[in-house]
Structure formats: structure tokens, C-alpha cells
Amino acid sequence: MSTRTSELKSTIATSDFDIDAINSVENSNSIASWMPDKVLQKIVAANLNQNISQITKESLANLTELKLIAPSERHVVHGERQCDVSAGEYRLRLKLTSLDGLEYATNLAKIDLAPSREFNHKWLHHTIVNSTLTDISALHHLNKLTSVNLEMCSVHDIAALANKPQLIQLNLSYNAIADFSPLKTNKRLLENGSVNLKKQIIRVKSIHIPAESTFYTPDPYKLFDFNGSNMPLKIETGKHLNSSCFIKQFCSNWSNHVGQITDEQTVTWNLLGLKPGDGAAMTVKFHSMNRVQEPLITGWYIIPFRIVTGQPITFHFKDDDGNTIACEQKLYGDINTSSNISIPSFTGYSIAAKLVDGIKTPISQDFVTTTISAQVQDITLLYNRDKPKNITIHYQDENGKTIAPESITSGDFNKQKVIEPKDVPGYTPIYYEIDHNGNSYHLGSIAILLNSQPQDITFYYDRKSKEKVSNVIVRFEDTDGNKIAPNKIISGFINDQQSVPALKLPGYTIKFKDFNGSHIINNLDTTVITLKQQAQKLIYVYTKSKVERKNLVKADSIANYKHSEHQRLSGKTSPPNDKKTREQQPSAKINNLSHLVLTTLILIVLFNVLGLVLMLYKRKRTK
């Protein structure tokens, strides 16, 4: 049984004003992107006493009260109430469907979009005529609401009315609400406020039942009270309802024993006595348990049905591997009734063929033609699974620098792939970004749905300061393992890259390098090292230059000569070792004495010349 709520049949006459004409009004285009319902635009404009073109998101902050017919459109003349709204305009406003855009009315306190019983009777000749308003999700964050009147609308989801601390008046009668549990958060409303939630009318899509069926059991009814518990059910025969009640025509009155309630929420309906072509409704009444004498919630759940002569056609949906991709569906009708059934589409799959009685037939159109018969039929629609695009994962630091190679992952179409940040030494993951959209998210397991579009995930990391390392020793040695230059120590952060050049040492030429035990003879001028947690070792190995070897004897001779000259000038001599050395010692003393006498004579001459110059200078000054 489908639980989707359908719109109530309305007795509204054809309006002189067409909704499409309103949609073409030029001055509404400025707000169409954030308030798409053109009827709501007219209602808001009337309540703000502005033209539609003047309405902005900012001006909605001035809206504190919103009514289907604005106070400025009502007048009292000579004691009688008059209204500026025409019958056609009133019918048009009942075509309101969505409140999107009202989320900007942050000061809205009162909202009353209920149809007028007076105008319903005057212009539509019925007191109870619902508007088509279904979507009230825009009220979700309007926490200043004190009064909400949405009576006689078509609302079925009231989650947006949860957590309204100032709400004290609420009227949701004559809607199609099956779940009232969101209201449990409004304690002030339920304890001391004014609440009217009666006469909910939930009518689902009509079903067909084969003629030979004697019993029918739909899915369990899901009707929830304030606390989320199931509300009690009762078969509605309509005996206590007056003839003018709208629900009278849907009452379960085709026999004296139409159904039996089992397991509180399940009803087995007795179809004995019904013939092909007969139509009726499976109708149950429900109510809340909060008040015994007068429950706050009452309503009816209606399943219209018709008895048909043919047997159902069951549709199965499977992929190319035979796996079921959707629940089966049944088509009912009278014998010889033909129809074109639209082929449903499923994300990640493409229709390929149909299988009937073991015969596989390719499908090129978007429908299949069926004919109801007296025999049960099965049709299997076969789909090919689309190939999903890959997910590319990037790893970057907080500055956008890549810190690890990207990775690529794949999976099954329309199935979730759980991705977690990879462990990058020296870094801590901080957040991630999907498809480079600029929106960042806190870390955790990321469930990505694979689809026909390629996707990107970027994990961003923060460098760990405690992971600083100093564990690379660079040595400079000759081929015999002798140290020929001081060692160098390379330090930094894990995963950093540093270039370590070889030293240019006079008399030596680099021959090879040893990096972490690997003998390398190429690119000897420098080495790029990536710092790691483990210690690393780099050795540059040198050999002596060939030119230096050829001049080695000459260099030794020059060194010996310089050493002897130094001894001679300093007067230091080696101890006599032989007779020749002893014979040369007197000659050396004579030479030293000659040098001393010569130096003394030179100094005497210089003093005499200086004295003569001074004497001539004095004589010249006295003249």
C-alpha cells in the first residue's frame, strides 16, 4: 500500500484568473529565484503593502504577520465588512503550494493562510474547501512564531513546526497529517496553548483488487501521536456521520463486517459480496490517546479501491547480473485493458531489455505496452549497470603543497565508498574538501556515492612540530675511508626534501657516492634527500687528482728547501753529525761578524749626512 498522501479533491470552480498568467508578470522575476511560488509573492506583497518588484530579502524582515487576505484588503463600510479581493483572486490564492522564501521573514510572529469559510460558502458553495498548500519547510528556523493557522490546507509534513518556544496557538485541522511527533518539542503549546488538530483526511492513491479476492490486507497503518506511539484505529462505517459530511462517501459500508483489526495497526478487509466493477473505500478512523474524553487529534485514513476482472501484471526490476534493484510493482485492471506503461529510471542503470516467459526482447523506447488478461503475468525489466567514474584523493598541507602522491579509488555505481585520510608521517589530518568546492568539513569517515561524474577529495594536513628530525649524516672520505673534510648534519621535518651538494676539495676529484648503502656514480654534484623517521647516511668518496701525483717529487723537494732556508735564517742548526759540519761552523761565525761591521758603518754614514743637511738648512734661514 502506498502511504503517499494525495491532494483532496476540490470543488473549486474554474478561476477567471489563470495561474500561468500570474507566472508571466514581469515585476515578479526579481524574486523568482528565492520565492518561486507566484501566489505567495502576491500574498506577501499585499501584507507588506508593496509591489512585488519592491520585495527583497531584507524587506521581509519587516513582516510580522502574514494572512491569506491581508488586513489592508478588508474594510468595514456602514457597519458591513467588505473585501477588495474578488472571487477569482480568492480562487487563485487557494492554489498556493509552497512557502519557500519566508525563511527571510525572521520577525514573523503570526501566520494565517487558512481558507475563509465565509468565502468558501459565498463563492464556492462549500464550507470546507482546502487550499493546495503542502510545503511549509520554510518555517523551520522562524522561532518567533506565536500563532500558526493552516486549517484546511493540504499539509502532511509538519517537521518545520518543531522547536517553536513561543508558539501558543496552532490550528492544523482538515489537513492530511499522519505524524504529529514533531510537536512534542513545543511543551508550552501542548501544556498551556490552544491546539486544534482534528479531522485529518488522509486519502492515498486508489488501488485495484482482482475479482476473486475475498480478503485484502494492506501494509500496517503508520499514524503517530505526539510521543511517536501508534494511534488506535477503528473501522469507520459512517453510521454516526450526517449525510453532508465530506467523509461520508468514503466510509467502509459495503457489508456488515468489512474488516478486522489485528496487531493494532493491521486491518484485514473482508471483500465478500463485491463484484467486478464495484468501487468502495477502506476507511479507518484514528485518534490520539492524550485525552480520553476529547482527543486532540482525530482523522480518517482512506484507501479507495475498485474490483477488477483481470489478473495483475507484476513488474520485476533486475540488473544484468540478475540482482533486484527495486521492489516489484503490480498493475491491475479489467480484462483486455491495454496501456503503455512508462519504464522507471534508476540512477546508475540504463534499460536494456524485457523478459517475458523466458523470451528476452531489447527495449529502445521509454515504455512497454501491456494488456490485462485472465492470467497472471510477469514482466522483468533488465537494466545494464552504468560504470562509475573514479574518485581521486589528494594529500596536501595547509598551504596547498602536495605531501604525498595522489591515489585513485573506484567501486560500484550508486554505492557508497568509505574513504579515510591516509597516514602521512610528520603530519596530522585536519579537514577535507570535496570537488574543490571551497567547503571544508571536519575529519571522519567519508562516505562518497559513486556516480557518472569524476570526483575529487583533498585531505589537508598540519605539520607535527614534534616530528622534527636530525638524522642524516654526510661524510667526505677518500677511497681508503680516510676523512678529508668535516661531516655535515642534515636536519628538518619528516617528509621534507633537502639538496646536499658535494664539496669541492683541492687536489681531490669526486669518484662516487654511497646513499643508504647504494653505490651511485651519476649526478655526483648534489643529492636530494627526503627526510624520514629512520636514520640515513650519505658518503661522498674522493680520489686524489692525477696532476698532483706527477708533481709529488717536486713538491717534496721544494718543501725540503724551504725547511733548510728557515733553519739558516733563524740561526738554528742541527747537531753536528759528521766532520764536514764541524768544519763549516767557524766560517759561519766570520760571516756573521762581517755583516755586523758593515751594518754599523752604514749607520755612521747616514748620521753624518743627516747632520750636514741640518747645518745647511740653519744657515739659509739666518741669511
Outline the structure in words:
The chain is elongated. Residues 1-29 and 572-584 have low confidence and may be disordered. The longest helix has 44 residues, at 579-622. By secondary structure, it is α/β, with parallel strands linked by helices. 17% of the residues lie in helices and 34% in strands. Strands 1, 4, 5, 6, 7, 8, 10, 13 and 14 form a 9-stranded mixed beta sheet that branches. A 5-stranded mixed beta sheet has the order 16-15-21-18-19, with no helix packed on it. The protein starts with 18 loop residues before the first helix and ends with a helix. It is built from 8 helices and 35 strands. It has 5 domains: 15-203, Alpha-Beta Horseshoe (Leucine-rich repeat, LRR (right-handed beta-alpha superhelix)), CATH 3.80.10.10; 206-307, Immunoglobulin-like (Sandwich); 313-385, Putative peptidoglycan bound protein (lpxtg motif) (Ubiquitin-like (UB roll), Roll), CATH 3.10.20.320; 391-463, Roll (Ubiquitin-like (UB roll)), CATH 3.10.20.320; 469-549, Ubiquitin-like (UB roll) (Roll), CATH 3.10.20.320. Strand 11 (259-262) and strand 12 (266-270) form a beta hairpin.
